[in-house]
Design brief:
Elements (H helix, E strand, L loop, with lengths): L1 E3 L5 E3 L14 E4 L5 H8 L3 H8 L5 H9 L3
Antiparallel strand pairs: 1-2, 1-3
Length: 71
């Protein structure tokens, strides 16, 4: 997760098992799910290719709005 606190400080939070920045009073900005269910249909066992192409599909306006609307 890329998350922000109320002051705007960004933090990368390596959470797992459906954990969320919300539990830590942080605002979720962006996430990359690397469990197989997220990429297997399109990428099969090519997790590295999925990660490399992730930046090409990020909806940057959505991420920016998440940051602006924090806390």
């Amino acid at each position: 997760w890329l998350a922000s606190d109320a002051s705007g400080k960004l933090e990368i939070m390596p959470l797992s098992n459906a954990d969320t920045p919300l539990k830590y009073n942080k605002t979720p900005i962006l996430t990359l799910d690397v469990w197989e269910h997220a990429y297997y249909i399109d990428y099969r066992n090519e997790r590295p290719r999925f990660i490399e192409q992730f930046r090409d599909v990020i909806h940057w306006d959505f991420a920016e709005n998440n940051y602006k609307d924090r806390g």
